[in-house]
Amino acid sequence: MHDNFKGIIHRRNFFQINYCLEKGLITLEDVVKEVIAIGSPEYICEFARRIKGAPIKELADAVIEIGEIEYILIFARSVEGAPVDELANPIIASGNAEYIYEFALEVKGAPILRLTEAIIATGNIICIARFARDIKEAPIEELTKIVLASKNGAAIRILAESAKKGKKVSIEELSQAEIKTEDAVQIYLFALGVPNAPIKELAKGIVATKDAEYIYKFAHDVPGAPKKELAEAVIATKNAEYIFGIALLYKTYIEEFAEGMIATRNAEYIVQFAQYIGGPIEKLADAVIEIGEVSYILRFARDVKRVPVRKLGDAIIAIGDAKAIYVFAHNISLGFLASLEFTPIKGEPIKKFADAIIETKNAEFIFYFARDVKETPIDELAEAIMATGNVKYIYRFACEIKGAPIKKLLEVLISIKQSDGEANQKDIFALSEEEKVNYLVKLYQNLDFDTIKNNQYLLDTLTKLMVTDLNSVVQKVIEIKDAKLIYVFALFVKNVPIEELALAIIATGEVQYIYYFACSIKSAPIKELADAVIATGNAKYIYYFARYVKDAPTQELADAVIATGNAEYIYYFACSIKNAPIKELTAAIIATKNARLVYYFACDVKNSSINELAKAIIVAGEVQYIYLFACNVEHAPIQELADVVIAAGSAEYIYYFAKNVKDAPIKELAKAIIATKNILFIHAFCAIKGAPVYDLEKAIMTIEQVTIASDMEEKQVSDFTLSEEEKLSYLIKLYQVGNFEAIRNNREWFSTLFQDKEEEMARN
Hints:
Blueprint: H1 3-10, H2 14-22, H3 28-38, H4 41-50, H5 56-66, H6 69-78, H7 84-94, H8 97-106, H9 112-122, H10 125-134, H11 140-150, H12 153-160, H13 171-180, H14 184-193, H15 199-209, H16 212-221, H17 227-237, H18 240-250, H19 254-264, H20 267-276, H21 281-291, H22 294-303, H23 309-319, H24 322-334, H25 351-360, H26 363-372, H27 378-388, H28 391-400, H29 406-415, H30 433-446, H31 449-454, H32 456-466, H33 470-480, H34 483-492, H35 498-508, H36 511-520, H37 526-536, H38 539-548, H39 554-564, H40 567-576, H41 582-592, H42 595-604, H43 610-620, H44 623-632, H45 638-648, H46 651-660, H47 666-676, H48 679-685, H49 693-715, H50 724-737, H51 740-745, H52 747-763
């Protein structure tokens, strides 16, 4: 057989195979031999189905010989006229229960009795049950005995489904067999899915399994389930989740369910039971208290109606957990423990909770208690927090607690060991003026911005208590030359000399805080601060200054951002700053030669020179942004941009330009895309409105034929000197690429192929 025909067979081109067979170019015998030689059972099956007159028996034997069970089944199932009995033999011999079952189910004329014996021999009870259920001619009585003897719950249930298909099976007998398996899942599924199943008997069976989940599911899902028996069974399992579930389901036997729930000692579900079902609340509360998990005692007190609040509060105090004491007292304070049936403890003395929180010596929750709980003894809590020595919470106590003894708290803060490791035991009022100034400045310097912002009251009080001459503090701040300190001091301290502090912050040269000063400080000297920011040459803060500082000198800042040559902030400046000098900024963005930002500038900046920007993006030469410019920028010079895209020779962007750019020169772009010889995009171009489809299709055919003609061109051989074999190869290639016009134009030349073939056949 010629290699060209082998190629057709190996490519599985059934249309061409049938065509060559019809025209007598190849024989069926040769094709079948080649297909079998390939050794693919999948191909043999497909061949048997799709080739007219295929020798089914020979092909079936080939599939059997290969021995892949899956394709033996496919052949028997899908090929008309397949030798079913012979194909059944290897299926039976495999001992694979799934394939035996599928063969019997799906293959017309399958030998059922032989397959029955085979599936019994496998011992696969599930497949035997499915066989009995689904195969019409299966011996149901014989198979039923086998399934019952197996005591396999799933198989028994599958067999019971046979009744829906009109098969004679005893549901009562199968139910008893299912119960004997002691498989809770299968008993449940049997009761749920089998019509006329004896529910009470099955309920007894599932109770015997002691499986809480499926006893509950039985009660929930099976119509006619016996409530009391199932409820008692779930309680006996001591499984809190399903006791809660079945109690919600029935909402009867509440006392029994509550006793069962208490026995589980599961605080989570005891709380949920009391909250959603009710019952003996006192008993349930006692159970949660005995378990002793503070989070559940708190939840019980907060979420359950008619709760014994005092008893629960005493339990929390006895445990001694600071957070829990605080949370409980806070909830009482807010009235969150109230309900329609229970009057909240108005007037309940918070004192015992305050005493309990003090006893814990936990500074954090002593502070929270003082801050959040109403009617608290502030002085006692202040003494307690000072005794802890915790600087953070002593400080917050002074800042945030109304009525706090600030003087005492400040004295304690001063007396506590400082960060430098030296202890200062002097009274705050005994310090010298210089020591007070140093302490105050150090305090401002060491605190973070948010702490100062949130504690203005303390700092104001501290300043007034400590110094009489604010100017000495200002001079100390200036002397340190810390930009952040200067800014914070100007922002938060009243009556300071702004001009003097502005000059000081400028002297630091820290552009971030110079900008913050201009942005946030009232009466700041904007011109001087702007000059300082400009002097840094930092494009980011020059732009920020122009955008966010009131009365900023726009022109000077624009000149400064242009001088940086930073394309990103030149673009931002032009986009965002009112009265920005667009002409100058346009020239600046062009000078950066940044194609991406030139494109964004043209898109987003009003009154920019589109022609100048277009020239700049052409010079940059990035075809992606040239295309995007043409696509998205209003009044873009389309022809000039198209010329550049064409010159770049990118098939992708030539196609996108033609497809998406309004008024694109389609014919020129079509010529350009043909020149790329990219068949994918030439094909796609054909769908563009106004495209010269004939020229494009002709180009596609020419490109596809290059490989066909390449051998002849290299050899410089005339068509008429080609051998018959070469001529046939050429014809097949023309047929593969669909160039029927070339075949028609040369039909006389090709006709000798068929004449020679007819003469050869006549001779044979």
